[in-house]
Structures are given as structure tokens and as C-alpha cells.
Amino acid sequence: AQSVAQPEDQVNVAEGNPLTVKCTYSVSGNPYLFWYVQYPNRGLQFLLKYITGDNLVKGSYGFEAEFNKSQTSFHLKKPSALVSDSALYFCAVRGMDSSYKLIFGSGTRLLVRP
Amino acid sequence: ETGVTQTPRHLVMGMTNKKSLKCEQHLGHNAMYWYKQSAKKPLELMFVYSLEERVENNSVPSRFSPECPNSSHLFLHLHTLQPEDSALYLCASSRNTGGAAFFGQGTRLTVV
């Protein structure tokens, strides 16, 4: 069965510092991996995805994520955090054998202090 | 704007009411989804439609009834709901395998 784990409920970082939001996954076969961001009272916004190719994926708003197959991880990163990055971040996975079933992690709240 | 539109944005309904949530996508996608987001719980996949056929139903109570009349529209019909059904209901759509899902703004449902 597919699953996604986001081990941190909340990540706190000072503005200008690098940030990392962790995600590990479990899926049979090769995964399709996604990151989404959610601002208060809004739907989820797509940030980036990994399908195949380069392990480092670049996305919207300066975010990037690194796919690590041996560690089954797909951590979200940004070199320099902004206060406006404060939001709820979700990692999601879809296995190649279950085309339409997109499973989400529990979410990590990112708080960037001025 | 993500190209996925949900109406209404907010809904308050009594436990004996019948209402419907609507979702419309203008992205040419062939799969549509309903998710439920409750406080302090992971997003729950409720229903998946691919090419207007239901391909996934994650043991959702029968008081939730989906309808997909065409590839651009998805409804969630609600009847005799319970207070614990209060949540943010999110619609999403995607292209075929590997495509990112794009979400609507959600409908905030309160059952009183």
C-alpha cells in the first residue's frame, strides 16, 4: 500500500535561512512524488513534482526537492526562506501501478520568523 | 486561479438537508477527485473518476453520493449528514498517469 510520512508537524525557521521540510514515502514500483502548499482557507497549490530524471527538482517560488531512492525520501528545500512562505506543506505520492490514487502526508506547518 | 472552480465556497446545512457541491475544471483533464480535509487529519481521498467512470471509492458513507456527468464536471450530493462531516471538501483534477493534480479552493461545509 502507498503511504507518505511527514515526520514534523511544524518547522520553524528565521527569514533568510535555508529551510527543509521532510517527506518519506512507501510505494511499490517507481513513485511519482509531489509537493503542495496550502494557505489558510484555500485549496492546495501545486509546487513541484518528480517523475523521472534529475534527482533535484526545481519548482515554484524558489522551492526545490531532492529525490533519494535509497532513503525513499523527497525533502522540500529552499535556500532562503521568506515570511510569506509560512503555510501548510503537503507531500504526496502516486505509484505507477495505481495511476489515479494520489495519497497525501499529514502536512507540515512552516513558520518563518521575521 | 488553478483552473478548477468549486461552488459554493461556504455551506451551512442541517442534518436533514440535501445539498450538492459542484466542481468544474477547464484544464482538459480526464480524472477528477473529491478529498475531505478535517482539522488535524491527513487529506482523505473520497472518490476518483477517470473518464467519467468511478475508479475509487474509499469506503465513504452512502450519505455522500458523487456524480460525474462529463469530464469537466463533478458533483458531491449530500444528504442526512452528521456534525462530524463538517470539513473542507476539495475537488481536484489531473491528466493521466504522472500528472499533477490541480485543486479548487474548496467548500467549507458546516453541519449543524
What does this structure look like?
The complex is a heterodimer of chains A (114) and B (112). Chain A is 0% helix and 53% strand. Chain A contains no helices and twelve strands. Chain A has strands at residues 3-5, 10-14, 19-21, 24-26, 31-38, 44-50, 56-58, 64-68, 73-78, 87-95, 103-104, 108-113. In chain A, strands 2, 5, 6, 10, 11 and 12 form a six-stranded mixed sheet that branches. Chain B has strands at 4-7, 10-13, 18-25, 31-37, 44-50, 53-57, 64-70, 73-79, 87-94, 102-103, 107-111. In chain B, the strands form two sheets. In chain B, strands 2, 4, 5, 6, 9, 10 and 11 form a seven-stranded mixed sheet that branches. Chain B has a four-stranded antiparallel sheet with strand order 1-3-8-7, with no helix packed on it. Chain B starts with a strand and ends with a strand. The mean pLDDT of chain B is 90. Chain A binds chain B through residues 32, 34, 36, 41-46, 49, 51, 90, 92, 94, 96, 99-107, and chain B through 2, 4, 6, 31, 33, 35, 41-43, 45, 48, 50, 55-56, 90, 92, 94, 96-98, 100-106, 108.
Topology:
The complex is a heterodimer of chains A (114) and B (112).
Chain A: E1 3-5, E2 10-14, E3 19-21, E4 24-26, E5 31-38, E6 44-50, E7 56-58, E8 64-68, E9 73-78, E10 87-95, E11 103-104, E12 108-113
Parallel strand pairs in A: 2-12
Antiparallel strand pairs in A: 1-4, 3-9, 5-6, 5-10, 7-8, 8-9, 10-11, 10-12
Chain B: E1 4-7, E2 10-13, E3 18-25, E4 31-37, E5 44-50, E6 53-57, E7 64-70, E8 73-79, E9 87-94, E10 102-103, E11 107-111
Parallel strand pairs in B: 2-11
Antiparallel strand pairs in B: 1-3, 3-8, 4-5, 4-9, 5-6, 7-8, 9-10, 9-11
